[in-house]
């Protein structure tokens, strides 16, 4: 394929919501991760190390991070593993911690905004404070992480931002209003950012998982269709992230179809689906 053909192919691919066709190599094999102490974050930390990344892991519970660091260092002695306590709702602390990680590694290749919480319950039943926390962590915490990451990547000249949404971002599930709203906000925030950064050398990836077996959804028990374990989920997520995916449902099958259908269900059917 000659230069003209490649340019044409990239323009055509750029119209499709699959990959960033102009994605350059990462400037550094180092990753910054929030929400790393449990669930998919913990599995991602191991998957990143297995793929050759040095990692800077953050979460609120430092004791769990210290245990994870010991496990990862034993399993991957060639990798650098740093941990730090971080609450993503302390927005200035987020920026300082990302700066610290960048100084330590001499630059970052990837920042993954994974921290998330959930609190179910219907609207108007005295659950507002719990619902507010969901939005603070899932949306505003992600925005703080992504904003600081982009500032670093702009000065560095490249990198990859990865934000966690959900397949339910396009639908308001009864009983799950704050979670659905927060994930819809993440999706649109990353979509706006992608338009700002297209062809700048900074890749923006939205990860929209289906059911992965984590503490955030374990209360649903057997009401989790197409459930996969965290190790499989982390592997599939990183496959899509490293491929430069723009919007990655995980697993792609069947959740790409489910995501499309959920966003288009009429209310009379959607009200039968409980978060």
From TrEMBL:
Keywords of this entry: Oxidoreductase
Keyword Oxidoreductase included in the entry's annotation: yes
Residue span(s) of domain Ketoreductase: 29-215
Organism: Streptomyces ureilyticus
InterPro entries assigned: KR_dom, NAD(P)-bd_dom_sf, Sc_DH/Rdtase_CS, SDR_fam
SUPFAM superfamilies: NAD(P)-binding Rossmann-fold domains
Name of the protein: SDR family NAD(P)-dependent oxidoreductase
One Pfam family recorded for the sequence: adh_short
Protein family according to the UniProt entry: Belongs to the short-chain dehydrogenases/reductases (SDR) family.
Biological classification of the source: Bacteria, Bacillati, Actinomycetota, Actinomycetes, Kitasatosporales
């Amino acid at each position: 394929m000659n230069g003209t053909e490649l340019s044409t192919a990239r323009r055509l691919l750029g119209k499709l919501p699959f990959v960033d066709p102009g994605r350059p190599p990462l400037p550094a094999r180092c990753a910054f991760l929030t929400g790393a102490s449990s669930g998919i974050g913990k599995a991602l930390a191991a998957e990143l190390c297995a793929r050759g990344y040095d990692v800077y892991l953050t979460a609120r519970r430092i004791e769990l991070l210290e245990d994870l660091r010991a496990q990862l260092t034993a399993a991957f002695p060639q990798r650098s593993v740093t941990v730090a306590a971080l609450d993503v709702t302390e927005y200035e602390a987020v920026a300082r911690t990302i700066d610290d990680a960048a100084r330590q590694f001499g630059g970052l290749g990837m920042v993954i905004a994974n921290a998330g919480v959930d609190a179910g319950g219907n609207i108007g039943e005295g659950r507002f404070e719990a619902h507010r926390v969901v939005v603070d962590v899932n949306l505003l915490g992600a925005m703080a992480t992504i904003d600081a990451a982009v500032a670093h990547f702009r000065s560095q000249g490249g990198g990859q931002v990865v934000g966690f949404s959900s397949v339910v971002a396009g639908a308001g599930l009864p009983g799950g209003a704050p979670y659905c709203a927060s994930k819809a906000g993440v999706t649109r925030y990353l979509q706006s950012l992608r338009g700002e950064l297209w062809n700048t050398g900074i890749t923006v990836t939205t990860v929209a998982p289906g059911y992965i077996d984590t503490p955030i959804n374990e209360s649903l028990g057997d009401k989790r269709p197409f459930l996969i374990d965290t190790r499989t989920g982390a592997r599939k997520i990183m496959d899509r992230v490293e491929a430069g995916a723009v919007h990655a449902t995980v697993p792609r099958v069947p959740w790409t179809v489910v995501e499309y259908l959920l966003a288009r269900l009429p209310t009379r059917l959607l009200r039968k689906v409980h978060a």
